[in-house]
Design a protein that fits this description.
Elements lengths: L2 H20 L21 H15 L7 H4 L7 E2 L5 E5 L4 H6 L6 H12 L8 E5 L23 H18 L3 E5 L1 H7 L6 H4 L4 E2 L2 H4 L13 H8 L2 E5 L2 H6 L4 H16 L1
Parallel strand pairs: 2-3, 2-4, 4-6
Antiparallel strand pairs: 1-3, 5-6
Length: 265
């Protein structure tokens, strides 16, 4: 590709992405996802009940130190029959107070990103985190802003059964991991997000739900196992990274279009 053609292609990418994110009303009809007719129907009630039971089981969890300093347990939000599951790293200041994932500035951007491809947490997407309590640099000052940190590997390992049970209940067609911590957990890798994004990777069911599980929590039935074998993982940048570095937006927009096109098949 010549330099001029590349400049034109880059410009088109920026225009498309900025129109979609800054005002989702500009999103083209092709960006609106129509649920697949082969998707199971009538499962909302069963999944809602299962998610509620899971929440009740863990809402008072103190299996790691995060449970002792949190304000609210941040379980997840969205439609139980969603085909797309978005996974971040953990609650921040605002999430810790409202009990809902992605409600701060990153959440506002995420909502725009979802709307641009015809998704929303109210109707056809589900949002969760790899840990359910706010990881703080200084747990003794929970009222301080700028007190966030990534969860430690030990915290992720301790909390992961909750997320894995959510995944088993939801049976999403696509999981989009947001940022390095969630991508590393879901793909069980140490590779950086920059080398992983832009691709579809099969969800490793047997790694997370082994045939002989040490934890009864992670035992799943055969239909669930087979459904999750069809789940694809698409890593992308965390919305907070896009707020810090807008130059990452074109790559993130490409990832969103990959998600949109995957759901449309």
């Amino acid at each position: 590709m010549s330099e001029m053609k590349k400049l034109i292609a880059d410009a088109k990418q920026w225009i498309e992405q900025e129109k979609a994110w800054d005002d989702f009303l500009y999103a083209t009809p092709s960006a609106t996802h129509v649920p697949s007719p082969t998707r199971e129907e009538g499962t909302s009630g069963i999944k809602t009940a299962a998610l509620k039971a899971l929440y009740e089981k863990y809402k008072g969890c103190t299996r790691c130190s995060l449970g002792h300093s949190r304000i609210k347990f941040v379980f997840g939000i969205g439609h139980p029959d969603s085909e797309a599951l978005f996974i971040g790293e953990g609650p921040g200041y605002e999430e810790d107070r409202q009990g809902e994932p992605f409600v701060g500035k990153s959440g506002q951007l995420l909502d725009k990103m979802l709307a641009a491809i015809g998704l929303s947490r109210q109707t056809n997407a589900y949002i969760a985190n790899i840990v359910k309590c706010h990881p703080m640099t200084n747990p003794k000052t929970p009222e301080a802003r700028g007190n966030d940190r990534p969860p430690s590997p030990e915290e992720v390992a301790t909390c992961s059964p909750i997320l894995l049970q959510q995944i088993a209940i939801l049976r999403p067609r696509v999981i989009m991991t947001l940022g390095s911590p969630s991508t590393k957990m879901v793909l069980h890798t140490k590779d950086a997000i920059t080398g992983l994004r832009g691709k579809k990777v099969p969800f490793d069911v047997d790694y997370f739900y082994p045939a002989i599980a040490d934890q009864e929590e992670l035992v799943i039935d055969a239909p669930t196992r087979e459904a999750l074998r069809r789940t694809q993982v698409i890593p992308t940048y965390h919305p907070a990274a896009l707020l810090r570095n807008p130059n990452l937006k074109p790559e993130s927009w490409s990832d969103l279009k990959l998600l949109r096109d995957t759901l449309a098949k």
